[in-house]
Amino acid sequence: MTDPLKPGSTIGILGGGQLGRMLSVAASRLGFKTCVFEPGGDCPASHVANFHLQAGFDDEAALIAFAESVDAITFEFENIPTAALDVLEAHRPIRPGRDALRISQDRLTEKEWLEGLGLKVAPFAPVDDMQGLTSALDRIGSPAILKTRRFGYDGKGQARIAADTDAEAALEAMNGAPAILEGMVDFSKEISVIGTRGLDGRVACFDPGENQHEGGILRRTTVPASVSHGVATDAVLIASRILTALDYVGVLGVELFVTPGGLLVNEIAPRVHNSGHWTQNGCMVDQFEQHIRAVAGWPLGDGSRHSDVVMENLIGDDMDRLPAISAEGRAALHLYGKGEARPGRKMGHVNRISG
Amino acid sequence: MTDPLKPGSTIGILGGGQLGRMLSVAASRLGFKTCVFEPGGDCPASHVANFHLQAGFDDEAALIAFAESVDAITFEFENIPTAALDVLEAHRPIRPGRDALRISQDRLTEKEWLEGLGLKVAPFAPVDDMQGLTSALDRIGSPAILKTRRFGYDGKGQARIAADTDAEAALEAMNGAPAILEGMVDFSKEISVIGTRGLDGRVACFDPGENQHEGGILRRTTVPASVSHGVATDAVLIASRILTALDYVGVLGVELFVTPGGLLVNEIAPRVHNSGHWTQNGCMVDQFEQHIRAVAGWPLGDGSRHSDVVMENLIGDDMDRLPAISAEGRAALHLYGKGEARPGRKMGHVNRISG
């Protein structure tokens, strides 16, 4: 176990979107500086980072300069090229570690790994071609969802197969990428647990939140989730088990389906998670600070919930409602500093407390 | 009344200390960028600002470049040279305005102005030389405190006169600067009100906090203050009256003495205030965001208190206690990113919630 980072140390963040932005702010609260590595200019995280290194993930010299300018490295998205990680890891610790990234970068690997841990997941089968899809549909049945194994987010890279006649179109939508067929699950709701594991192995989970999606994008997270105490406890135990099995350091998001037969793991995200944004106004220490504490080797903070919260994402032209939202009582606004409010683009969120 | 600033606009902040740092973070939450004007390098605010313009307040070209790069200007300290303000104001609005600065920069002007408003203050008299001090002591009596009229903070520029024999030493401690003699007030406690006035003239005040000082430096603020409902209401009314009389825009800190004869105004600070740091963990919208909202011409946020809080400053070698403090429950840590923990230097604070 290494020494905790001292205030004044620099934490390197791969990726400069809104998650990197809110991680930077949390790092500043603990006296850390941040350096953001992000190919795009004027990115959300750059506005609050001490330094923005603008370079591509294939720029080895830039990666080395970045690694040498920081004391520990973390990331805000899981699809970081393996070659970049190899370069970085030779110079500074990456937290969470490579295992979590390797597993969560590929839906097939992830589902197999979760099953190996004894956790329930939706029925699935790998699909590389039409023949594979046909036999997968035979086994799993339809309706089902065909998803690219890698690089999917916010419903992108997914195609629904309602009847077998949709199969060809769905496969074409994968653009030749390796895919996975997932059976539809009869679930009453989706919940998620934001868990953190410290460098010392201690685990702390925030209360489970209940998620509503629209058009494949998270719309709203409500805490507490309206599930029984037993279900909430199970969800936290599952998240803890995943964190420990991965020898994980940092925050991990675990999405779960509540079904008549118990909880199914939908997916895991090895990073701070949109469904954990409510913690900013429901807890003394939010998911961003928990992550920074873990990455810095600090003790985890107190993430117990002091208020009921409904988090609503502000997507695309939701921004037109800004004048009204900014005047609301019992509401806290969080904007990401993005320019154009394109359809489907996450521009910010609002946390409303109710208890 | 001008239009509210749109997200993506830049707010210029004069001064790069911890107050500028926390203002920058609050600005980012609302989607604003910040540019910090500060002569010192590696200052606390620079770590989270979009841009740090490092130049002196006598550098006219830099002041103009700064003003032209931002949409509105605010400040984190009141002792900004008048000549610099003249340059800036020709290019962009400064909020709060010049009147509040002019009055609060000079203890004598401030006390006279407060008296003119019908508010009670401690007995006072201007002191320019030994003759003036002698006649002031005749009028006010001792013990009393001799203070420089300008540039005092955290107990600096003050000398206590217990008996007339201390007078000469006290005057020498002023280093020839114009001074003011203030009579000692028989007060049971000091409280403060953090009030905000929007560009639309609306006023919102946070709950009064109770302050404890050590060695002339704020040590602890407790909310709610243990005063009667009537005293709390009076305090808020006094703050509101000051805000309105100044046609103020932004956050103002008002320190008050609770005495048997009612509330006395100790001093006002035309900026976010150390005794308002508790709002970060006691309210949905804290003093920093209220200030940014006002400066940006936005509606004020909901500053109602959801928790009881004790804010403790971390000063100098209090930082040695960091390992223990960082592991506390029901506590939120806020560090300022300063290097050396010199005696008397404010390094951070911790908010502890208790209700």
TrEMBL record, chains A, B:
It catalyses: 5-amino-1-(5-phospho-beta-D-ribosyl)imidazole + hydrogencarbonate + ATP = 5-carboxyamino-1-(5-phospho-D-ribosyl)imidazole + ADP + phosphate + 2 H(+). Residues 111-296 form the ATP-grasp domain. Pfam families: ATP-grasp, PurK_C, RS_preATP-grasp-like. Its EC number is 6.3.4.18. Pathway: Purine metabolism; IMP biosynthesis via de novo pathway; 5-amino-1-(5-phospho-D-ribosyl)imidazole-4-carboxylate from 5-amino-1-(5-phospho-D-ribosyl)imidazole (N5-CAIR route): step 1/2. NCBIfam families: PRK06019.1-1, PRK06019.1-2, PRK06019.1-5, purK. Catalyzes the ATP-dependent conversion of 5-aminoimidazole ribonucleotide (AIR) and HCO(3)- to N5-carboxyaminoimidazole ribonucleotide (N5-CAIR). Catalyzes the ATP-dependent conversion of 5-aminoimidazole ribonucleotide (AIR) and HCO(3)(-) to N5-carboxyaminoimidazole ribonucleotide (N5-CAIR). This is N5-carboxyaminoimidazole ribonucleotide synthase. It comes from Palleronia abyssalis. The lineage of its organism: Bacteria, Pseudomonadati, Pseudomonadota, Alphaproteobacteria, Rhodobacterales.
